[in-house]
Amino acid sequence: MPTLLQKALALITGSPVSNKRPFRKMTERQLIELESEIGRELFGPIPGGHRREFFCLDESTWVWHEEWTDTATGRTLSTTTRYEIHANGILKAQGGTAYKFIEGEELRNLALAVRLYYEQVMRGIYKIDPYTGRPLTDEPPATI
Amino acid sequence: MSETPSFPLTAQQIEHAVFSPETQQRMANTLNLEKEEPTINPEFWGVPEANHDVAPAPVAIETPEQKMVEQMNRLTDAEAVTYIRQLTPHVKYQRDLALAA
Question: Residue A117 domain-assigned?
């Protein structure tokens, strides 16, 4: 329930007082889902009938999940790939059976995806400047 | 370079750690540019380097994203692993911070 002060401010400014703790009632899973909404868009348009998720699971794991319907059989197919950060490289685990350390283009693509994810999630969800770590303000950035 | 980041660590600090003077030198060599100072190349973030003596020559328009992709594509495998290893805990850290707020 809004406090008297909040009601007064809403009357003065014409809008409700912004919630400064927007994540207070969210679970980590819900936050990951929010992040994944950004993550899934990093790789371009998602083909029709596909579902894609890309998110940071924890401090050492990235998950890429792809789900689609096989037009021939009508069955739902999916593939889940985990990229695990180890001391000696990034281990790709796909389907629970295939494991390999990624290298070259795939590794650089992942690094780029991680960077884009970080920058867009920090700005879009946590309202943090990814370069300074400071909260974003409504003021436009300084220009020359 | 420390393998374990101590938090809070800003993205700027990560960039400084990953894009070391040696990396900058290698990038400059790749681009056939003359090496000046062992500092972060300001163009990395799309910030034009100030030159008060000569008017800049017209260049093809490049979006910051294109530049970023080019820069990232120049990373060696070891640098890419370091980059991912250092940036990933940041996401989790910020998420935990938001949940605890």
Answer: yes
Rg, chain B, Cα only: 16
- Reading the block at residue B45, the tokens are 């973030």
- What is the distance between the alpha carbons of residues A132 and A125, in angstroms, rounded to a whole number? 16
Average of per-residue pLDDT across A11-27: 61
Structural domain containing residue A87: 32-124
Residues of A in contact with B72 (CB under 8 A): 108, 111-112, 115
* Number of structural domains chain A divides into: 1
Size (chain B), residues? 101
Least CB–CB distance from A21: residue in B15, B72, B101: B101
Which value, to the nearest 10 degrees, does the dihedral of the CA atoms of residues B25, B29, B35, B40 take?
A: -40
Say yes or no for a CB contact (<8 Å) between A31 and B92.
no
Q: What count of other Cβ atoms lies within 10 Å of the Cβ of residue A125? A: 18
* pLDDT tens-digit readout, B12-37: 555 555 555 665 565 555 554 444 44
pTM above 0.90, yes or no: no
DSSP character at residue A40: T
